[in-house]
Design a protein that fits this description.
Layout lengths: L30 H7 L10 E4 L6 E3 L9 E3 L2 E2 L23 H5 E4 L3 H9 L9 E3 L10 H4 L1 H11 L4 E5 L8 H9 L3 E6 L5 H7 L6 H13 L4 E8 L8 H10 L4 E6 L6 H12 L4 H11 L11 H4 L3 H17 L25
Parallel strand pairs: 1-5, 3-6, 6-7, 7-8, 8-9, 9-10
Antiparallel strand pairs: 2-3, 4-5
Helix pairs in contact: 3-5, 5-6, 9-13
Length: 357
């Protein structure tokens, strides 16, 4: 069901996935026509929050092309509404749409910190860095209400457990009091995701994420506090944001970032139709050009799920983006060192089995 763009929302579709034999959603009578006739456009879409009683909080992966093997996501769904988000298809597991449902029907795990403490206390646990922000943003707006990310950080800080954070939000600076002492020990690093410096582009691409200038200010604040800070240009969207690569890296370096990385846009599962509908709504003049380049990067397909190539892309366009990125990093002094968080300081919580002295 195609919708007109809703204020503050990224997706223009809310179709159910057919991957799990879910019933297709049908338009509710003349609702689409009715909302177009309303004064001031369609009504706002309210965000709802559901409590999820999880049994574990550390998710594991064995992907050979990601630099971590475990992560924590205190929230499901993400109100930032980034239309390209590769995590959108996870909402289909809840019989919900990866479209508007993903950014408006959220789940929170209030027991996250207690579950984390319990998992760290298991005798079988072996310490490696835990990544935040790998699926949904740990500092999306509802973090201000629930504070689950901060609670998890407090657990990790208490036991000198290493962590990395990726976020689009300047709300991360509220936790500098926790992150700075951890960074001084070499057990914390943060990446700010900045896909565009243009407010108009950011407003439609990632409508509820903080303004790009606020994210750069967060880079500056984190760096000033001694926290190793990256900038992530993820994703790079050909013919929409790729012309900004050099400008973003220059601004990142000026703000004190020490390193950067990028990913070409990925369109797994239901993300592809959502992204194409977004192009039709916001960039109809170049929609086909964008998708043509995306297919050239993905070996003729809209998405490449193969390990290694899925994160880099292939072909002339992918090579050109990579070369521009590498040259700009060198020009602005980024990636001169490899930021590594250490794992040897970890002291497990005292569980049922007392520590032997």
């Amino acid at each position: 069901m195609s919708l007109p763009p809703l204020p503050g929302r990224g997706a223009t579709l809310n179709a159910a996935s057919d991957r799990f034999n879910l019933p297709a959603r049908e338009a509710d009578g003349d609702w689409l026509d009715a909302i177009e006739d309303l004064d001031g456009g369609p009504p706002p879409l309210r965000t709802t929050v559901t409590i999820e009683r999880a049994r574990t909080i550390i998710a594991r992966n064995n992907s050979p092309d990601v630099p971590f093997d475990r992560s924590i996501n205190p929230y499901r769904g993400c109100e930032h509404g980034c239309v390209y988000c590769f995590a959108r298809p996870t909402h289909a597991f809840h019989d919900l749409s990866p479209g508007l449902d993903f950014e408006s029907r959220l789940f929170v795990k209030p027991d996250a910190a207690a579950l984390l403490e319990a998992e760290l206390a298991k005798p079988s646990y072996r310490c490696q860095p835990i990544a935040f922000g790998t699926n949904t943003d740990p500092y999306q707006p509802i973090e201000g209400r629930f504070g689950l990310t901060r609670q998890c950080l407090e657990v990790l800080a208490r036991h000198d457990h290493p962590l990395t954070i990726t976020t689009k939000s300047d709300r991360v600076v509220r936790d500098i009091d926790i992150l700075a002492p951890m960074a001084a020990k070499g057990i914390a690093a943060v990446a700010l995701s900045i896909t565009s410096l243009d407010p108009a582009t950011a407003r439609t691409l990632e409508p509820r994420a903080p303004h790009p200038a606020k994210r750069l200010a967060a880079v500056r604040a984190l760096s000033a506090a001694g926290i190793p800070t990256y900038v992530s240009i993820a994703p790079v969207i050909p013919a929409v944001t790729d012309h900004e690569i050099e400008h973003i890296l220059e601004a990142a370096a000026d703000a004190g970032a020490r390193a950067a990385f990028f990913l070409p846009v990925r369109l797994p599962w239901e993300v592809a139709p959502l992204f194409k509908a977004w192009l039709d709504a916001h960039h109809p003049d170049r929609a086909e050009k964008v998708m043509s380049i995306v297919r050239s990067i993905r070996d003729g397909r809209e998405n490449d799920s193969n390990f290694f190539t899925r994160m880099k892309g292939t072909g002339p366009w992918a090579d050109l983006i990579r070369q521009r990125f590498v040259k700009a990093c060198k020009r602005y002094g980024l990636n001169r060192e490899r930021i590594v968080v250490r794992s040897d300081l970890f002291t497990p919580p005292q569980g049922r089995q007392l520590t032997l002295l």
